[in-house]
Amino acid sequence: MNIATRLPENITVRHSACPHDCPSTCALDIEVHADGRIGKVRGAADNSYTAGVICAKVARYAERLYHPDRLMHPYRRTGAKGAGSWQQINWTDALDEIAEAFVKAEGRYGAETVWPYYYAGTMGWVQRDSINRLRHAKKYSGFFDSICVNPAWTGYFMGTGALRGPDPREMAKSDCVVIWGTNAVATQVNVMTHAIRARKERGAKIVVVDIYDNPTMKQADMKLILKPGSDAALACAAMHVAFRDGYADRDYMARYADDPAGLEAHLKTRTPQWASEITGLSVEEIEAFARLVGTTRKSYFRLGYGFSRSRNGAVSMHAALSLPTVLGSWQYEGGGGFHSNSGIFKMDNRLLTGQSFADPDVRQLDQSEVGRILTGDPRALRNGPPVTAMLIQNTNPINVIPEQRLVKSGFMRDDLFVAVHEQFMTETAEIADIVLPATMFVEHEDIYRAGGQNHITPGPKLVEPPDDVRTNLFVIEELAKRLGVADMPGFGLTERQHIEAILNVDGLPDYDTLLNDKWFDRQPDFETSHYLNGFAHPDKKFRFRPDWLGQQGSVRPPDNIGVLGPADQLPEYPDFCAVIELADEDHPFRLATPPARNFLNSSFAETKTSRDKEGRPEVMISPVDAARNSIENGDVVTIGNIRGSVRIHAKVTDAVKPGVLIAEGIWPNKSHLDGEGINVLTGADNVAPFGGVGLHDNRVWLRK
């Protein structure tokens, strides 16, 4: 029975997409009551990827929308930064003050002193990306967005030449699903939907490769818990076994790969014994994994982001992706290597982002280095002027960016003007000069495209926002008027007009059709998805020998940044690359900071249910390490490194192996014992070759 037939007359079901920073981009059915309030939120059962399943935090979205602490009015700071002294003001005065501050800053240091700063608090194209149109129109400093996808996308692109892969719904048709480096139960629940369907219907095996025994591991038929940053060693050993034992598909590689003979020779010494020393896995575990995927043609390698968030992340992604190529898994429905479909959608954002007036000579500043930038590091500033004015939308850098002490120190500068457009008084908003209240996704119009699946999905406005709350687009439009650029292309358009321009591409539906159909499937045909017409490099070959420095790609830094990190240390073939923060005598532990199940980055940390379910900030410690350090469950411990130290409660658990510490979730800093969060310990140094940060790659010491 359709859900709509069971609803009371005063409730209708409307359709949208989850706006949050997650590859699933779930299609949603949302109850809207006659009084204009939303009720239950469900996954759309008739969407072939979402398949009726969404995560619990989004299912209770009404708790967030109607939260008593939601920002409802603009405010001006009246006391010291962070003191919490605010005066309510009207929108006209707030926007006037922001524009005046930008003009004053520009008059002193030039346009590049202003840095519009944003990220993925919403994944809607219009509300997220319009800030770039204002940036380009005014020649403000550029924004190199590095914190999330760069190592993973780079590693994948190096092999295939494109960001696409086998239809993710094919997991349900696989005989072996390898979930590598993503805690899908917590972060991409639909991956589990299709993997478990394969197990129920086909008897498929589920393999999970990760660094601790997380909820996804508990669904595994084979679990491989390895040391952080050692994934490439596992992949190389599995390929060694494939060549050694006849699992390698030599005919496939002869047609589709660049140098299989060179790879085989390189892997001669990359034995399971070699990999065991690096990964901490037993030789037997490595052999069993290699044998399973080697004898199962329909092996689907679902490669996540987590294992790429190390200083060797791009190398690890490329190595893991090379394994299905050696095995020839790409040839089969339910086989191949998938990370992201972000390259398939071909939507047009040029008008939205002001690409026609973008100036390549304007400096680009690295999102992840905001602490170094705001504290005056000349290299991070690209030897340009200081940043003295910022507009921040859709992100909470004081909470989520590495090197937190530097970040906070920079934001506390008296000569820095900051305007924050937010839904809650985040810790970044708390240090702002002007705070503006922002709409949530059901209160504005937008359009979404997935990374982990294949649909373009509209996000129509379903309910009215509170009276004094405004959209991101409204803020950009009003500032453009005050800053003298409102007559430039792209300004003055509504959300709907922008969406229509984004969809004005051959092969895409118009917006009315998209609204009527609820989503549009953009998955390429089987041959294209599986690269059976050749990979996307000029020679049509998968590259076992990546061109680390010459390869182009969607995340390659602009020329005025250049290649990043220790690019000279990247290997010729897939290999373990020891550029990670290896444990040493002074720092005997490796710390990783993976997502919590009930938070999404710093979102949902404000809702009571999510906080209650997570409990408190804790660090997972193995019983062996706890005993060695006389630590009991619940004790307060200090973990630290050259960047600082954090006091936190210990959770003694077999979920982690000796030498590894796990701190799940980005809790508000104030939730920690001393008001400083886990990102005090994470570094902002660049991942080679195209940037990113090693959020899960930190050596630390531990004391009771």
UniProtKB/TrEMBL annotation:
> Where in the numbering of this chain does the 4Fe-4S Mo/W bis-MGD-type domain appear?
11-69
Give the keywords, sorted: Iron, Iron-sulfur, Metal-binding
Q: Name one GO molecular function term.
A: iron-sulfur cluster binding
Q: What SUPFAM superfamilies does the record point to?
A: ADC-like (SSF50692), Formate dehydrogenase/DMSO reductase, domains 1-3 (SSF53706)
Please give one Pfam family short name.
Molybdop_Fe4S4
In the UniProt record, does the keyword Transcription regulation occur? Answer: no
The keyword Isomerase belongs to this UniProt entry's keyword annotation? no
Q: Which residues form a coiled coil?
A: none
Looking up InterPro entries in the UniProt record yields: Asp_de-COase-like_dom_sf, MoPterin_dinucl-bd_dom, Mopterin_OxRdtase, Mopterin_OxRdtase_4Fe-4S_dom, Prok_Mopterin_Oxidored, YoaE_C
Would you identify the family this protein belongs to, as annotated? Belongs to the prokaryotic molybdopterin-containing oxidoreductase family.
State the name under which the record lists this protein: Molybdopterin oxidoreductase family protein
Which organism is the protein's source? Answer: Rhizobium setariae
